[in-house]
From TrEMBL:
Transmembrane segments: none
Acyl-CoA oxidase/dehydrogenase middle domain sequence ranges: 144-241
Family membership noted in the UniProt record: Belongs to the acyl-CoA dehydrogenase family.
Any single biological process term in GO: fatty acid beta-oxidation using acyl-CoA dehydrogenase
Sequence ranges assigned to domain Acyl-CoA dehydrogenase/oxidase C-terminal in this UniProt record: 257-405
Renumbered residue ranges of the record's region Disordered: 410-431
Protein's name in the database: Acyl-CoA dehydrogenase
Organism: Qipengyuania marisflavi
Length: 431
């Protein structure tokens, strides 16, 4: 165990940190001005300019897994590579990106594209990669991931009702999806859709994932869903009707019935990315809180000298540092023993990070008084976004459930301890 970052970890983190400081932060006001002009669902030019700069400097597609991760054929994927950072190295970069809302896009490292690119990278055929992965990696197009449905409790993905029916050389898709993030962006050209190809197969063998071009006839975007009133333009979160959408059979990913397998692979690293960015968000909120508290006086002394703030600031520092360590541990385990063995750590950080950030942002809002809930300090929007992360990629309770189940499995009753009424009753059935 060594808590000192290596030279390579520092090298990549500092390049991202410096780029955010030198180029992204100074562009924030331009971003807001361009965002406020004209159409909501448009390309924001300053992001394109920053993307060109980051790409030129080679700080681009940093999330792409290293070549020897054992999941794909080296010869085939040679041209679909990022700089080969480990999860641990990338985690440190993602924290820096998290400090400013649009920063991750400037490095071509934003959700849901990152998860979708990983799926294409791991499971895509050569043709699928040429057609969709190449332009995604160039930052020319964007993508969406369509799993959640309005009619069913989608945190249990076995409930999904969307149909994917084989018809000759095609598949025909029928269903309704919502919370399809990124589908508002005019460059969003491709969606990975989860649906069922066989309603009679085993619980986890009914689902498949297919590549669906967003301009296919029958893809009808019904509305965008605001988050506490924020439209999150230009990418947004959409409700989409899929009505007799016809796609070639070659757009199937991995094979019929393998949707769950892909979902497991997709969400592991993606969760860590969100969590590390969340730590950056929390650092930013703490920084704003400290500055504001020292800048104003109330009841005869600077606000920061009222002891309640010492306690809140100290707790924030403790919580951020504990959360970062857990996140880095999860990332390191993913690198060393794989996503599957790191399952409990990934679930723990997925619950911990947004809850930690929400407490700190809430206190930062309080420290700013009325200003805190306005748009002036970015705290209200940060709160809204973090609140969604207690739901997106699975609600807290689902992750808590898997953490607890692993814990229960580790500590089964010793001989003679088991209560007959329990082991033959409900508890037994849920294990
Ligand atoms: C801003 C945002 C962006 C999103 N982006 C995407 C996207 O790009 N693509 C996509 O497919 N989806 C996306 N989602 C959807 C998200 O993944 C789902 O909302 C989430 O998985 C929960 O599913 P659900 O909304 O159907 O809630 P339900 O499944 O109906 O669950 C409702 C509540 O039930 C409770 N619950 C569920 N299981 C348990 C349990 N085991 N124990 C106790 N309580 C439980 C939880 O409190 C949960 O919040 C996004 C959501 C948001 C808010």
């Amino acid at each position: 165990m060594d808590f000192q970052p290596t030279e390579r970890q520092q090298y990549w983190r500092d390049r991202v940190r410096n780029f955010v400081q030198d180029h992204v932060r100074p562009a924030v006001s331009t971003y807001h001005a361009q965002d406020a002009e004209g159409d909501r669902w448009k390309v924001i030019q300053v992001v394109e300019d920053l993307k060109a700069k980051a790409k030129d400097q080679g700080i681009w597609n940093l999330f792409m897994p290293p070549r020897n991760d054992g999941h794909h054929h080296v010869e085939e994927s040679f041209e679909f590579e990022g700089p080969g950072l480990t999860n641990l190295e990338y985690a440190l970069c993602a924290e820096e990106m998290g400090r400013i809302g649009f920063a991750s896009e400037t490095f071509n490292c934003s959700a849901p594209d990152t998860g979708n690119m990983e799926v294409l990278h791991r499971y895509g055929t050569r043709d699928q990669k040429d057609r969709w992965l190449a332009p995604l990696m160039q930052g020319e197009i964007r993508s969406a991931f369509l799993m959640t449905e309005p009619q069913v409790a989608s945190s249990d993905a076995t409930n999904i009702e969307c149909r994917i029916d084989r018809d000759g050389d095609d598949y025909v898709i029928n269903g309704r999806k919502w919370w399809s993030s990124g589908a508002g962006d005019p460059r969003c050209k491709i969606a990975i859709v989860m649906g069922k190809t066989d309603f009679s197969a085993g619980r986890h063998a009914q689902q498949s994932m297919v590549l669906m071009p967003l301009d296919a006839p029958g893809v009808n975007i019904l509305r965008h869903l605001p988050v506490f009133g924020y439209d999150d333009a230009p990418h947004g979160h959409m409700e989409i009707e899929l009505k007799d959408v016809r796609i070639p059979a070659t757009n199937m990913l991995l094979g019929e019935g393998r949707g769950f397998e892909i979902a497991q692979g997709r969400l592991g690293p993606g969760r860590i990315h969100h969590c590390m960015r969340t730590i950056g968000v929390a650092e930013e909120a703490l920084e704003k809180m400290c500055r504001r508290l020292q800048a104003r006086e109330a009841f005869g002394k600077p606000i920061y000298k009222h002891s309640v703030w010492e306690e809140r600031v100290a707790q924030a520092r403790i919580d951020i540092d504990m959360t970062r360590l857990l996140c880095l541990k999860a990332a390191d385990m993913m690198d060393k023993v794989g996503n599957k063995a790191a399952k409990q750590e990934i679930a723990m950080i997925k619950v911990q990070a947004p809850n930690m950030a929400l407490r700190i942002i809430d206190n930062a809002i309080q420290a700013h008084g009325g200003g805190g809930v306005s748009e002036d300090f970015g705290l209200a929007k940060a709160y809204a976004h973090q609140r969604t992360l207690r739901l997106a990629d699975g609600p807290d309770e689902v992750h808590a459930r898997s953490i607890a189940r692993m814990e229960f499995a580790r500590h089964t009753p010793l001989p003679g301890e088991a209560d007959d009424t329990l082991s033959s009753g409900d508890m037994g059935a849920t294990r």
